[in-house]
Amino acid sequence: MFKPQNILQNRYQLETELGNNANRQTWLATDLKTSSPVVVKLLAFNPLMQWEELKLFEREAQVLQNINHPRIPEYLDYFSVEKSSENELPYFGLVQKYIPGTSVKKILEKGKKFSQNQARYLAEDILEILIYLHELSPPVLHRDIKPSNIILGKDDQFYLVDFGAVQDKAKAEGVTFTVVGTSGYAPPEQLWGKAVPASDLYALGATVIHLLTGISPADLPQRQMRIDFSSKVELNPDFNYWLEQLLEPAPERRFATAKQALTALQTIEVRKAEKQTKDSPNYAIISGIFGTVLVGIYGSFYLPNLLNKIPQAQQAKQAEAKNYLGSMNRAQQAYWLENKTFTDSVEQLGISIVPETENYSYSVDSEEKSTFHYGIAKEDKIKSYVGAVYVGVPKVSTLHNQETTLSILCEADSPGQIKLPAPTFENGELSCAEGTTNLNELSNY
Length: 445
Description:
- The protein has helices at 51-65, 104-109, 116-134, 188-191, 197-213, 237-246, 258-278, 304-307, 312-339, 346-349; strands at residues 7-8, 12-21, 24-31, 36-44, 75-81, 91-97, 101-103, 150-153, 158-160, 222-223, 226-227, 293-295, 300-302, 360-366, 370-377, 385-392, 404-412, 424-426, 429-431, 436-438.
- By secondary structure, the protein is of the alpha+beta class.
- The protein is built from ten helices and 20 strands.
- The strands form six sheets. Strands 1-2-3-4-6-5 form a six-stranded antiparallel β-sheet, with helices on one face. A five-stranded antiparallel β-sheet has the order 14-15-16-17-20, covered by helices on one side.
- The longest helix is centred in the C-terminal third of the chain and has 28 residues, at 312-339.
């Protein structure tokens, strides 16, 4: 067994044990070469263990080497530790970038539940990751999406971690794969060893149910093989139906792709924003985890006590603009990941944004390495907004100076019918222009 301060490969100094399960250990360590924190996963090669366990560990390393996504911890190294006097068994090691933050499981263990909006934003973030994974060639299936494998980072982004159950081969007729997954989250076909991309969608749906109810899906009642959650939480009917589609026992009755599921979810968000504006001002005031609400491309928090200083009718109208621009930011990032360009066509984003509403005019202005989304108020009592997505190398790069997408959402300091100046991207940092406030910075942990 390894101990704190042990150094592996003359490079990785173990600091804190994060997990210890049978033949596996997970450590927070310091990369002495770069002085940066990393996660080291160790698998002891026990002659009595099942050979499949080593195959899954090696597959995780192989798959991670070929993944390049800003919200999947970056692969750094893979090595073996030979048997010595210090450890009785040979070990294999996998090193990834450390993501500072809190697992969603720990948030639930503190008795917190997610509001419908918070759960929806998390679902959007994970769906964007799944779109990337499922559209690789061959498709990559995570096969173990659950609260403990989702990290809420200190940068307000949700990360998908632990690819120990990953499958990197498409389902073939008559071929079965190793049965992996977690009870309650894994769909029926996965328990039969035949996971497909829609299997990850089921696991995401089960995870969202856990966030909303605070109850593990394995402990919820079932009706006709379906998780029965309706008696535990009251949801928007459209959102409820969307979840039911994810949780269909038969994979062919779920959404066919993560992209379809995301488009359907974002359409619900737009409808909700319109309903808030016309029918229910109070509905826009959201409370939840850490007393905050998620907004923007990756979900950023802003403080309710700031909202309380604004008349409720004004809050509702401004919530529309934040929802719209947040969706546009998210959709543009997904569009760039797929096409390596942005689009001026809102229709191509597939999120059913209406250019003109009762309260705002919306427009898009895209360039080669940036895109700007404007919400211009139609009355002097509400604020205007601007959102932006840039392609570039962040100040603290997670991808060895490779370009990635960064986003920002800016609010006018004062109400008015104006087109706000665009945010800027300099020296790896995004900034809102003078006279506007960066909503991403209004966070509270």
